[in-house]
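Good morning,

Attaching, inline, the backbone tokens for the sequence recovery test we're adding to the shared suite. The designed sequence is right after.
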């Protein structure tokens, strides 16, 4: 979409022409990206200054979020806000300007890529004469579209109801449309927003009880896995970093992987055998995003516990994105909220994805800069082409099973049942069949595999 830039810093897209005689298509929307002139100094907890995102990057992400649920952004704008208004966030002149754009473009929805108070949302809806969603509401709407399992649906509904507690205002009946789920765009079609706060709270309590049952079930499954035991490796990262593509590359699965924000929501687990035979459980989790609502994190706690309980965390970054550093900071902040220290190099591996999109000069420079960092060099990969995947697998196996060791074992004729296991769990260097019927095998095996071999040989000898 072409964008124009006004003298006051507003970047806007030109409204598209949509004749009224055409068939009903995607919901027509106006996307507004407010940029506060005075940004917050830092986190409340650490007071660490947050990295500033470029206006273009914020604009592109907001448009991507809108298109992720099949909205048609007929007009987009980045607006500098020098003095946020308590009533509408934007100044009165801008509100009037956007009201005219909404009217001329026959837009049904206005997306404001910024948190809005209930009062601001209500006032903007009155002034713009259209339904208004802030960033939180839009993310919840996307999650509602993506949830496929009962657990995911429960989590989205709980987050939605918590969000709506302070927003029990009149619904836009002229936007009423029958659709499933508990989203916002459907209006009161199937789920009329309760006007009674008590009923709302009762529903929240009921959902929390159902999710507690889900959590207990997950705990049981996790306990069974620990009895096997297979180590769990969780892939985390900013949305659209390529987590599902990497998951598919490592597992041979066919999890949905698209160039779309929040293409997948529900977690997926698969068993994977690494090159030297080490079995792991690989977990693909929901993508993170900046300013992820705290009540949404709370609602998805059951899902994110897969990350908390993981033996190893792969932090996947889209290194080709200009805002990759800010995205990494957002992911690390959420991990910290979950009790995972992203700086713990024994538990967290930083992986740079999409290196195939970098030219050789940028790739070499980035890797050189990373090698000078306190966390050591990251693993650079392309989940699409497969470049660097072998190095990643080797590192994961080293973290899970220890370094490769040279080992020589003699297998007696009565122990030949172990030979097949050795071939599956080690790199055979040489094999000598002896005259007495035994076999001497030299191999490279991980530390854990060596311990298992010694244990199996002892059991055979004792038996």
């Amino acid at each position: 979409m072409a964008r124009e830039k006004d003298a006051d810093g507003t970047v806007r897209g030109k409204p598209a022409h949509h004749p009224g005689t055409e068939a009903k298509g995607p919901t027509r929307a106006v996307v507004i990206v407010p940029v506060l002139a005075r940004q917050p100094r830092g986190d409340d907890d650490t007071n660490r200054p947050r990295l500033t995102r470029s206006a273009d990057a914020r604009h592109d992400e907001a448009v991507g979020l809108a298109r992720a649920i099949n909205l048609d952004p007929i007009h987009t704008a980045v607006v500098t806000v020098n003095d946020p208004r308590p009533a509408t966030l934007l100044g009165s002149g801008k509100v009037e300007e956007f009201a005219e754009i909404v009217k001329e473009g026959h837009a049904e929805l206005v997306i404001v890529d910024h948190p809005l108070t209930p009062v601001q949302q209500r006032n903007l809806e009155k002034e713009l004469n259209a339904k208004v969603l802030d960033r939180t509401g839009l993310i919840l709407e996307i999650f509602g579209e993506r949830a496929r399992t009962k657990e995911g649906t429960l989590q989205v509904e709980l987050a939605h109801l918590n969000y709506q507690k302070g927003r029990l205002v009149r619904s836009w009946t002229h936007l009423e449309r029958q659709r499933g789920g508990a989203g916002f765009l459907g209006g009161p079609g199937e789920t009329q927003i309760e006007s009674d706060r008590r009923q709302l709270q009762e529903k929240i309590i009921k959902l929390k009880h159902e999710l507690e049952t889900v959590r207990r079930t997950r705990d049981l499954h996790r306990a069974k896995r620990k009895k096997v035991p297979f180590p769990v490796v969780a892939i985390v990262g900013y949305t659209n970093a390529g987590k599902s593509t990497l998951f598919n590359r490592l597992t041979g699965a066919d999890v949905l992987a698209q160039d779309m924000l929040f293409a997948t929501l529900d977690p997926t687990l698969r068993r994977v055998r690494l090159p030297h035979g080490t079995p792991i459980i690989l977990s693909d989790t929901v993508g993170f995003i900046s300013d992820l609502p705290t009540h949404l994190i709370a609602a998805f706690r059951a899902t994110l516990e897969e990350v908390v309980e993981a033996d190893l965390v792969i932090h996947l970054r889209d290194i080709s994105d200009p805002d990759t550093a800010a995205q990494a900071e957002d992911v690390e902040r959420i991990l910290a909220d979950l009790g995972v220290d992203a700086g713990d190099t024994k538990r967290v591996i930083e992986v740079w994805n999409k290196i195939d999109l970098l030219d050789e000069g940028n790739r070499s420079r980035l890797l050189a800069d990373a090698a000078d960092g306190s966390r050591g060099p990251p693993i650079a990969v392309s989940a699409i082409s497969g470049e660097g995947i072998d190095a990643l697998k080797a590192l994961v196996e080293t973290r899970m099973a220890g370094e490769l060791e040279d080992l020589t074992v003699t297998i007696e004729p009565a122990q030949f049942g172990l030979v097949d296991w050795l071939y599956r769990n080690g790199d055979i260097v040489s094999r000598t069949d002896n005259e007495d019927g035994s076999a001497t095998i030299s191999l490279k095996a991980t530390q854990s595999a060596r311990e298992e071999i010694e244990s199996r040989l002892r059991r055979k000898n004792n038996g």
